Please model this.
Amino acid sequence: MDLIIKNGTIINANETIRADVAVKDGKIASIAENISITDCENVIDARGMLVLPGAIDAHTHLAMPFGGTISSDDYFAGTRAAACGGTTTVFDFVLQDFGETMVDAVKRRDALCAPVAAVDYSYHVAVKDVSGELLDSIAECVDFGVPSFKVFMVYDFGVTDGVFFQVLQKAKECGALIEVHAENNELVNMLTEKYLSEGKTSAWYHYMSRPEFVEGEADERAIQWAKASGAPLYIVHLANKQGVEAVTKAKDEGYPIYAETCPQYLEFTSEVYKREDGRNFVCSPPMKGEASRQALWAAVKRGDIDTIATDHCPFQSSEKDWGKDDFSKIPNGCAGIENMYPYMLSAANEGKISFTKAVELCSANPAKIFGCKDKGSISVGKDADIVIYDPSVDFTITNDKMHSDCDHTIWEGITVHGYPIQTYSRGKLVYDNGEFVGEKGWGKFVKCSLK
Ligand code: URP
Ligand code: ZN
Ligand code: ZN
Model:
């Protein structure tokens, strides 16, 4: 054996077991009560520790051209930070160029990501152009191993309802999964212009121009198109109560509607936009009021939120400062890739949810929904993506302890209870007690299949 983890408590989405784990050639080779350590030079004593499957962050934007700049974590820095927060697989968004097939978009990105990624990764393609043959290239991309596609209802690269519906119909035909960033673009633009013309320029007006109903209406519309097309739909970064209610209703009616939320929507409310550093919290959709935060936690607990992801899209303070006097100039997005698993596990440690639930949301469900067959649990035959977690330590997040290239974090000063002490990616130690110990280019492209 290459590695044996002894005496720990294994947590999967559906079980908690006291057992040893043996790793061979990057895979979990056995799980048993007392695995012999003869002939294994790498034995870890995990007594008192939890042994968890690595998290899967299904929503990141690394080196993304956006808001007049490029998000500040490239494919190495972002995946390095992931490893240090117990995330062993990252799904990054590839923005299709006009005229480009979906597979060409993936290949273009992979040429940049493959040489530097520190943990395993896959992609979703953000669709911009379905003219001519390009709509059919969705099916080709499914066969290539990238079966998930996103449409934006906002931003200058957002699609019309017509294109959204066409994409859903194609997904139904070829077994793809469509994701949506749901906000009402017309209302955002109208409200933004209105507030700026009234001289209301602070970060608070980012929230005011994208309030609860702007997202809720778009969630309802997106669900409506999914129902009509018969295709499944995955709503990314759900952040409002009305949307939660729409998801619950659609699920209760039996429709395959999935919902993701992010730690920032579970922790913060729109009050952050009144802070001096409010612009650092500017992301879309924005954090909403306390009623939405509570509705999201309730949905997490009853299973109407399927996954937690980060929407990691950091920008440097100097770039956030572009919007000091005009909220519309603040690049949208925040860092979070290193904080997701510790945050959700801390919620479990505090008794808000169970540890099995945290693993389900952060690892098992994203593996299942996006078709990563080798990930998502500590089971024989799966990739040895393993986190050793110490539930007894407190960890106060400060940017100097993070491993991203971003110069600030919205999580500054927040204490989580319990913290990962080691992360293994396919059996290789990549994070050890505060230090990144992995290597550039170690990460491999994960082919996904929804069949
Ligand atoms: O503000 C955000 N979320 N930036 C990244 C792009 C997106 O909308 O997901
Ligand atoms: Zn988005
Ligand atoms: Zn995003």
User: Anything to note?
Assistant: DSSP finds 13 helices and 21 strands in the chain. The CA atoms of residues 23 and 29 lie 5 Å apart.
